[in-house]
Write a structure and sequence with these properties.
148 residues, alpha+beta, elongated, Alpha-Beta Plaits, 51% helix
């Protein structure tokens, strides 16, 4: 009887812990409070950024006579430092709006309607990426992933 009681008690504790983790990750926020960026606006922003980078690179390659990478600026490359990667839309938009309210140049990317990335994009040298990653880890309290 003692063994059966301890098994049932252990399963109850595990179930309660799982429920608490679920409630922690799904914050009770109103979707009306979140600002949703239409897909066409995000696409236009990405296209305009790409055209600006390509124009800067083409003018630089004309001056120097070499054809560098599409995303390179001098000796630095445009890296994406991912602050948050999640499948939870509400969580991604909440974090994006929070960082946007601090007047930071934060971006959000969605591959489809179920996966979101919140990231900073800025040029850096490859040898400086680890230092930047560590600084962002300390500042934002999350593990940072780097995309090029």
């Amino acid at each position: 009887m003692l063994l059966i009681g301890s098994v049932i008690g252990g399963l109850a504790i595990i179930g309660w812990g799982g429920y608490m983790l679920y409630m922690k990750n799904t914050a009770p926020t109103n979707e009306a409070d979140l600002v949703i960026i239409p897909k066409d606006t995000a696409a236009r922003k990405a296209e305009s950024e790409a055209s600006l980078v390509s124009r800067a690179d083409s003018s630089q390659s004309k001056k120097s006579g070499n054809s560098g990478s599409l995303r390179s600026r001098g000796d630095s490359v445009l890296y994406k430092f991912n602050i948050l990667e999640t499948h939870n839309k509400i969580r991604a938009l909440k974090r994006y709006n929070q960082l946007l309210s601090f007047k930071l140049k934060i971006n959000i990317y969605t591959r489809d309607s179920s996966f979101f990335k919140v990231y900073f994009a800025f040029p850096a040298k490859s040898k400086d990426t680890i230092h930047i990653k560590d600084s962002l880890n300390r500042e934002y309290g999350h593990s940072i992933h780097i995309d090029q």
